[in-house]
Amino acid sequence: MSRLTAAPSVKIYARRAAVAASAAALAATGLLTTAPAALASPPPPVSAATARTYLAALTVSAEGSSDGYSREKFPHWSTQSGACNTREAVLKRDGRDVQQDSSCAAVKGSWYSEYDGATWTAAADVDIDHMVPLAEAWRSGARNWTTADREAFANDLTRPQLIAVTDNVNQSKSDQDPAEWLPSRTAYRCTYARMWVHVKHHWKLTVDQAEKTALEGVLRNC
User: Fold this and answer.
1) How far apart are CA 75 and CA 180, in angstroms?
2) Is 106:124 a contact under the CB 8 Å cutoff?
3) Amino acid 174: pLDDT
4) What is the largest CA-CA distance in the chain?
């Protein structure tokens, strides 16, 4: 996927408007509610102070090309246990009262999206976001990794790399970095920046200057 620098298209605006209307309708019927924060529970990121230290240590470099990138070069979702793959593991971890069928598919539960503050009661309305998107990782150094390393990155349950969020919001984020996209829920931006830096530091990915400046700005207020 190419890097997004232009304003969202009319098509994206239309889809977001449609989802907002749908959310309003669900709220009226009690299917969509506002939930307390922190129901989703990826591994906690490093502190803001540590994130600032990590960020200063990251290599600053212009992003590489997206040439050669495909999601298939980051195999996911890998089997975690029995019939459960990484997606189902995150849905179970990040949800409340999640019930799974014999194939490990989530058939009941609720999921609070930290990015926009919405709660969903159907797993189909939830995406598993890669905190550092796969295409962003490719441009930041993962193009030089082995397939096994890229699979480990795409299924990383140890770092705060995976989180269940509203599908439309995840699609709006796409492969953008924090210079281009941050969660609309401002109360989560500090955590988001800490998570982003934690992941990039662990996986030894680079940052470009605009990305670093944006992260510094968020972390300064944490």
Assistant:
1) 26
2) no
3) 98
4) 50
Helix (H) or strand (E) holding 106: strand 106-113
**Cα(202)–Cα(131) distance, rounded to whole angstroms?**
13
Q: Residue 26: in which H helix or E strand, if any? A: helix 10-29
Q: List helix spans (H) across 80-188.
A: 86-94, 134-139, 147-154, 167-173
Low-confidence ranges of the chain (pLDDT < 70): 1-40
Q: Return phi, psi of residue 146, to 5°.
A: -80, 160
Q: What is the pLDDT of residue 41?
A: 82
Question: What is the side-by-side order of every strand in the sheet holding 106-113?
Answer: 95-100, 106-113, 118-120
Residues 54, 77: Cα–Cα separation, whole Å: 28
Report the run of H or E that residue 114 belongs to, with start and end. Answer: none
Give residue 169's pLDDT.
98
Which pLDDT value is given to residue 220?
Answer: 97
Task: Using a cut of 0.90, tell me whether the model's pTM lies above it.
Answer: no
In this predicted structure, what is the pLDDT of residue 40? 55
Q: How many CB atoms lie within 10 A of CB 104?
A: 18
